[in-house]
Amino acid sequence: MTAAGLAVLTLARGSDDVFPVGLRVAIVGLLALVAALVLAQAWLVAASLLLLGGVYAVHLAVDDAPLDLAVVLVAAGVLVTAELAYWSLEERDDIRGE
Questions:
Q1: CB atoms within 10 A of CB 68
Q2: pTM for the whole thing?
Q3: Average pLDDT in the 91-97 region?
Q4: pLDDT one-digit tens code per residue, 43-54
Q5: How many Å apart are CA 10 and CA 54, to the nearest integer?
Q6: What is the enclosing helix (H) or strand (E) of 84?
Q7: Which of 24, 47, 21, 23 is nearest to 34 (CA)?
Q8: In whole angstroms, what is the distance from residue 43 CA to residue 65 CA?
Q9: C-alpha span between 78 and 89 (Å, rounded)
Q10: How buried is residue 73: exposed, middle or buried, by Cβ count under 10 Å (0-12/13-18/19+)?
Q11: Which of 32, 64, 63 minimizes the C-alpha distance to 45?
């Protein structure tokens, strides 16, 4: 949910030049995150975060947008997404009770 909100925030702020490519990259990033959770592959979490953060970086570069409050929201979104994704991967370990 947080990753989808991160993608929507980035795409909503982008111009018409960034939207078509950003939408595709955001979809690939979200699919990579889902694949990471289904397949229990931690490296896919990092790849998905790189793609989602990259969409915002492209928005800043192409639109020549100044840094504002959205940077804090994107950083918080990436951090929360990473924490929740790695936490859910960590909780998959089978631990036997005593």
A1: 9
A2: 0.84
A3: 70
A4: 999 999 999 988
A5: 10
A6: helix 69-90
A7: 47
A8: 31
A9: 16
A10: middle
A11: 32
